[in-house]
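Supplementary Note 3. Input sequence used for the single-chain structure prediction.
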Amino acid sequence: MLFIGSTIGNFEPSEAAQFLRDIRKSLEPGDAFLLGIDLVKDARVLYDAYNDSQLVTERFNKTFCRASNRELGADFDVRLFKHIALWNRADSRIEMHLESRVEQTVNVRDLNRSFHFDRGERIHTETSYKFTPASIAKLLSEKRLQAGKELDRSKKWFCVLLARA
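The predicted structure, written as discrete structure tokens, is reproduced below.
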């Protein structure tokens, strides 16, 4: 089985546990599961990655507004929201938000609803958990998967490992 990329980090811990439980149920003894994991890094590296000077992450984060406008008939003005990305060390995760620069109301036609935002109020748009080799080994073992050989650990930032049932 293959799950490449660090998207397991976008699951809440209980969702990641359920995902791995479901994977384990579909594996026969001896089957392998290839998993890509985003590792904990220095706080400065994480900050720079999610607050890049080319504004790639900011544009990605504001996709929430543009997609809501297009798909739900909302009237978000992306210029009125500031991209915020924070490292939450205690929970080992990056948290991305859009912060209202002004007091405003956003209308969402297809929901027949309006949302009021105070200046400084945030929309939590994404969470990205980061793992240590020990935390992923623990998570896997709790789901009766054995963390096996690491196939790659680029700059100690990401890891691709082979787990076995």
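The CA atoms of residues 2 and 43 lie 29 Å apart. Residues 13-26 form the longest helix (14 residues).
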